[in-house]
Amino acid sequence: MVFPIYFLALIFILVILVATVIVYFQVYKRHINRALEATDGKRNSMVPPYRVAIVMTIIVLLIGILISYFVGYANAYKNYEEDAWEMSHSDIQTFYAEVKEVGDHSLVVEGISLNDENYRGEFQYDVWGEVSIYQQDTLIQLSDLSEGNVVSITLVTDRTGITNIFKIQLLADKK
How do beta strands 132-135 and 138-139 pair? Predict the structure, then answer.
């Protein structure tokens, strides 16, 4: 597994926080020592270190929240993009049918007895331009199909659950 770049960013931010607090403690200590050595009693006030530590912690927490949000968004989007084109075996179904009626943009078929019980009835499908119809390796038109032809119909179910015809293959002519 590749080491995620955002871990490096988070470590870098934590190192900056620690370095800033350490440097501020050193500066504050030097300021206090000078104030104690001075006899005139006047000194410039400095913010106490605990307040700096609190402010820096809040800043780091806010930056950590922002980084977590964007990293989570990026990972979720990446996972969605990877999964969007993956299909399981149940998303693609093929069954065999006999053509009963051919319309301009529709096809009525009846599943043959070799099919699963779900594909043995009569089905009507709307067939549009994105559906490929083949006879062997040759692309044909819907109008080339006729009553009595045996076809295999490949259905694809998308992620939303909608089933569409992907391909129709003419297997045998009955003339």
Answer: antiparallel
Q: How far is residue 83's CA from residue 80's CA, in Å, rounded to a whole number? A: 5
Backbone angles phi and psi of 88, in degrees to 5: -95, 175
> For the whole model, what pTM was predicted?
0.51
DSSP state of 170: E
Q: Which two tokens stand for residue 22?
A: 């350490």
**Residues 51-71: pLDDT tens digits?**
777 887 888 788 878 888 888
Please give the structure tokens belonging to residue 78.
């990446």
- Tokens representing residue 55 in the block: 């402010």
Enclosing H/E stretch for 67: helix 49-84
| Size of the chain in residues | 175
Report the alpha-carbon distance of residue 85 to residue 79 in Å, rounded. 11
Written as one letter, the residue type at 123 is F
